[in-house]
User: Fold this.
Amino acid sequence: MTMRILLGTGLVAACMPLAAYAQAGSAEAGRNWSAITDCAAAPSAEQRHQCMDDVLRRTGLLSDARVAEEARRDFGRDAPSRPAPPPPPAPASASAPASASTPEASAVETDRLVTTIASVGTTGYRRLRVTTAEGSVWEQTEAKSFNSSPKVGDTFEVEHAALGSYRCRFARSSRYRCQRAD
Assistant:
């Protein structure tokens, strides 16, 4: 009988902190859900997406490193027209800490990509086709000759140019016009 009492007391003592943690977790989940429902009032899809990202960052489910890596991977793919509309203010909720980063500070704005060459080929007369380490494919759009050919492992840079175009450069070459092909 004494053994049963000790086991029962030990089991209750072990479960009490878990029950308190579950209640605190459900309260936090309720505040997060409230913040998510506040995001639904944003007037555009881009603003709703930014609001959701802010909620995910505050909860620790989305890191700035992941956002930056996705921006590098998607650089040049269906680029939005510039300038982008300003992000909405963060939703007012009790779960937002006072030191939460502002959308302007956490947004990744990439105007230049620096990576390495994974493979090189040609698409026609004097036109290069470069595949980067991230897997994006860039094709030369202007006829231009170079003093040296690009090699696997060389640095490769892509930057925004005028009117939504891009300029590429490998190793120490001059810049040339290019477009994303994938």
